[in-house]
Amino acid sequence: MNAIAPIEAALPRAPFDAARQAAAEWRGRCLDVFARSEAAVTETLLVLATVEGRGASIKLPHLVGQRYDALATALGPKGAFAEEGKGAVGALSRFHQHDSLRTTLAHGVFSVTLDHRACWHVVGRVLALRAGRESRDLFVADEGEAADTLLTVEKDGGDLRSALGQVRHRFRAG
Fold first, then answer.
1. Least buried of 35, 62, 147, 165, by fewest C-beta within 10 Å?
2. Measuring CA to CA, which residue among 105, 103, 111, 110 is closest to residue 128?
3. Residue 37 has pLDDT above 90, yes or no
4. Interior CA angle at 20 toward 6 and 155, to 5°?
5. CA distance 144 to 77
6. CB-side neighbour CA atoms (13 Å) of 2
7. CA quadruple 96, 136, 35, 122: dihedral positive or negative?
8. List of residues 6+ apart from 119 with CB closer than 8 A
């Protein structure tokens, strides 16, 4: 029998496994920052909603993006909590800018590749429906860019959680 078998170079598996593990850890750490920050947004809305008189205007929506918008409205210049929200509005706006990354991390299908120096790269693809049409988004980052992204998300998330903690403290202490 003369079967034609493909010839494939067998590369060591360990570098690929290590790269996939490192990329998964990066993704998990980013998602953890988002989860903690989203919890702070929700907790702040719940605290503000209990404030006598002014809290009645607070909306408590189901979707996280709508919660960011509700909190931005409440703390914004024309909101019921504008005075208390002065320090938090900027932090909220900065962190909310990472929302497309959050969507990619949470809903994307990721591939991990290695370059010739054994540095990993992530490629995330998101297929969504917007206005009844398909929308395909692509996220690509190398190991260094991913690390920088994580540092930025951690800093902005920490700033947001701190600012919102101060807002909540004003109402819990009083």
1. 62
2. 103
3. yes
4. 155
5. 38
6. 0
7. negative
8. 142, 143, 144
Query: What value does the mean pLDDT take over residues 62-74?
Result: 95
Q: Provide the β-strand partners of residue 142.
A: 121
Residue 173: DSSP 8-state? H
For residues 150 and 24, the answer to whether their CB atoms sit within 8 Å is no
| CA angle centred on 29, ends 26 and 34, rounded to 5° | 125
**Chain center to CA of 159:** 14
- pLDDT tens column, 101-124: 999 999 999 999 999 898 999 999
For residue 173, what pLDDT is reported?
59
Asked if residue 142 lies in contact with residue 119, where contact means CB atoms within 8 angstroms, the answer is yes
Question: Any idea where the domains of the chain sit in the sequence?
Answer: 14-105+143-173
Given a cut of 80, whether residue 11 has pLDDT beyond it is no
* Residue 30: other Cβ atoms inside 10 A: 22
CA distances from 151 to 89, 112, 122, 146 (A): 21, 20, 17, 9
Q: How many residues does the chain have?
A: 174
CA distances to 38, 60, 89, 104, 153 from 158, in Å: 12, 23, 14, 21, 8
Which residue type does 129 have? L
